[in-house]
Write a structure and sequence with these properties.
Radius of gyration: 19 Å
Number of strands: 11
Strand content: 15-25%
Helix content: 10-25%
Strand order of the largest sheet: 1-2-3-4-6-8
Order of helices and strands: EEEEEEEEEHHEEHH
Largest sheet: 6 strands, parallel
Shape: globular
Low-confidence stretches: 200-216, 221-236
Distance between the termini: 50 Å
Mean pLDDT: 88
Structural class: alpha/beta
Length: 236
């Protein structure tokens, strides 16, 4: 019999992505979540030609999404809570048929830039992006009119159903049943889940004033992102 499902979550794995798995073409489900896997995503994930579910949440995956080819059969992708950086490329999920029904979670990384309009070719997708450093949409009408996205929240709430804009926050980083987007001066990026007060004019420990950078630094720490990595992204 051929191996269909492989679940290795919560095993304290401390290697890079195990390349041997790429040769198991019969896999339909691969769960590597909640380990300490390092390195980057293999560019040839599409070699797993039957894979429908790929779960790598809560590891230490680095690098970019650019150049990573996912299987055309993929339906459920969870890369949340890693340290993936860079922009969401316009070719993200490019080889997956537009009629696919997708569940994609890339929240809790250090992704920057704009959400590419090319994703609007999918009519049925749940796309979770909270707790990154996203600055907006490349094309608002095409993305915010996808009425079936995020369980219909984009149809009900427009862009807020995808991500709260800068200057606002919500418990889920977007408007849904858990709460609407609320005004927040310190929310500099789209998809903020917390609001930090900027009324912190003096810090007795350091004898200096706190500023917006301190708020960014604290926010990066609280969402599980390495503050040093975040500073690197600001400087370079």
């Amino acid at each position: 019999p051929q191996l269909k499902k492989l679940n290795l979550r919560f095993n304290n794995l401390r290697s890079e992505f195990p390349s041997e798995i790429l040769h198991i073409s019969s896999l339909t489900t691969l769960n590597l979540g909640h380990n300490s896997i390092t390195g980057t995503l293999p560019s040839n994930l599409n070699s797993m030609i039957n894979l429908r579910t790929l779960l790598i949440t809560t590891n230490n995956i680095r690098g970019h999404l650019t150049g990573v080819d996912f299987p055309a059969t993929l339906e459920n992708l969870d890369l949340s809570n890693n340290i993936i950086s860079g922009v969401i490329p316009s070719a993200f999920l490019h080889n997956i048929p537009s009629e696919s029904v997708l569940e994609v979670d890339i929240s809790g990384n250090i992704l920057t830039g704009l959400i590419p309009s090319e994703l609007s070719r999918f009519d049925k997708m749940n796309l979770y992006l909270k707790n990154n450093f996203i600055s907006g949409f490349t094309e608002v009408p095409s993305l915010c009119s996808k009425t079936e996205w995020n369980n219909g929240d984009v149809g009900r709430y427009g862009c807020d159903g995808l991500l709260c804009s800068s200057g606002s926050f919500a418990p889920s980083g977007r408007h849904n049943i858990d709460g609407e987007c609320q005004a927040c001066e310190s929310a500099d990026f789209y998809g903020s889940v917390q609001c930090f007060s900027l009324d912190v004019s003096y810090n007795p420990t350091t004898s200096r004033s706190c500023n917006r950078f301190d708020v960014w630094f604290l926010r990066a720490y609280l969402i599980g992102v390495s503050a040093s990595l975040y500073v690197t992204t600001l400087l370079f």
